Amino acid sequence: MDDRTFPLAYVQINANLDILFCNNKFREFFMPAEGESLFKLSDLFDGYDITSRSQTAVINDRRWRFVTEEPRGGKTDVYIFDESEEIPCGNNVMAALLVLDNYTEVKENMEEVRHPHAMAVVDRKINEYFTELGGIVRKFEQDKYLFILREDQLEELKKNKFSIMEMISKVDVGSIPMSMSIGIGINGTTMAHCMEYARGAVDLALARGGGQVVVKEGEDKYQFIGGSVREISTNTGVRARMKAYGFAELIKTCTDVIVMGHKSPDLDSLGSCAAIFSICEFFGRKCHIVLGNINSSISTLYKRLMEDQRYESIFIDGDTALKQFKRRTLVVVVDAHKKSIVECPELVERAKQLMIIDHHRKGPGAIENYSLTYHESFASSASELITEMLMYMNKGIRLTKTEAEGLLAGITVDTKNFAFKTSSMTFQAAAYLKQLGADTVSVRRLFQNTLDAYIAKASVVCDAEIINKNMAISVLRIRVDNPVVLIAQAADELLGIRGIEASFVLNEMDGTVYISARSLGTVNVQLIMEKMGGGGHISGAATQLKNTTLEEAQQLLKDTIDEYLEEKQR
């Protein structure tokens, strides 16, 4: 498939907008009648801006989108999509976008003289890989590629596990291996729909940490391929500063703020909510925290917060929040990104201004109607992300000792005492909170369990069943307060047994079986939980099974683990 048979209208221009080349589709749609000529793109699209990445124009009573690549060698490629007519793309075409996840980090850690050669090797391998499949691939930014293939080739790509990803990771680009994500769109009624699905798929892949393939079939069906590597850290001080600035602007333009975390809150959720309350108070905006139940894992922090008179009448339930909601109320969601698990899903639906701060890997069902999001799956916790923003916000914002300890507790509990998912930013955030007065001994007291909870956790460890020589499965059968939090703690404890690489703890409550999974990294528990309808991270994930007995859930878990291991061995 060459440029002349490319399925989209395509034109190549120079800096003066002179047309150097155009394909058959461009001629078919835009060339004047015989005997006339079209020399400049501006003659077709008056007002065309070569510096604009994407722009639209109405030509011949049809709406067209012009997507402009970065210039190369004095030439610029422009792809033109018909957005006014539902042109079927057929059932044999798939559109895809490929993104080099850590391009910036690789470039910064490589000698300048080596970079052009290394990227030329990457370009050649990507072009050869997809060209050999009979498709077409075009680079439209330094780290982004568009390719189009026949849909029946998707099975072939799955069979070889998208070997291009491994090929690129082996290219010598310095100390940091190159990682890529691919988003594929199929089953769209038009080519534009397929491209829209592909954009949504690659955004989801990046939000889940990168290094994987996401296939979007239609509006709400996804397939996840890969994702067995740890998340790629792409955060920078610039990004945190911009999020802090955007959040401050949202607060200034709203009448009041309602903040909430997820159901069955933990220290990360409550600590994050308390910090948001303090920020809103600094900017002179009234803030309420939606809190459904006070379980044993947050009770100590909650009591400490309530000793502060500022928190009097701040905690409200979902019904009260809905009554207080106004048209210009800013809703802030922390430590969650799915509407189904937040304290009050109805607030998400009503919100005209919505901010999301979360660190979990993004999956289907994510909230889409946000005004601003700070979603970084490589981060240890929502508390870490909020602390980052605090470091770049107005220096006049001062958290109380309890609020700082709430954030530090959130980081500590989600990193398992700084053992998992830590980066240099995690320790910088902890150091900043120490400067604000957080005391590690006082934070430690927030984790203390009751004797009954400790005995229940010990029973889970004692009853554990070892499978595949390196995995432990156990069930919490003793009734305790907030069993969902306790099974997560018990799963962490099981990883302390020599030889155990992954642990799974189950509990049944109100007709639903909860499963908490933990791993030291060699077993991807996120993929296992996703197969059962849940999600999470490589080293920590969970799921819920309704209308299922504990025995059925245990067998389903074992079958899913076997399926995961079989796929891993292929």
What key phrases describe this protein's structure?
single chain; Beta-Lactamase; 570 residues; 37% helix; alpha/beta; 20 helices; inorganic pyrophosphatase (n-terminal core); Alpha-Beta Plaits
Fourth-tier CATH superfamily name of the largest domain: inorganic pyrophosphatase (n-terminal core)
The neighbouring-strand order within the major sheet is: 7-8-6-9-10-11
How many strands, what sense, and barrel or not for the largest sheet? 6 strands, mixed
Number of helices: 20
What's the number of domains? 4
Helix content class: 25-40%
End-to-end Cα distance, whole Å, is 32 Å
Question: Unreliable runs, pLDDT <50, ≥5 residues?
Answer: 1-5
Indicate the mean pLDDT. Answer: 86
CATH architecture of the largest domain: Alpha-Beta Complex
**CATH topology type of the largest domain:** inorganic pyrophosphatase (n-terminal core)
Output the radius of gyration.
26 Å
What's the number of extended β-strand segments? Answer: 23
User: Judging from the principal axes of the Cα atoms, what is the shape?
Assistant: globular
Structural class: alpha/beta
Amount of beta strand: 15-25%
The level 1 CATH classification of the largest domain is Alpha Beta
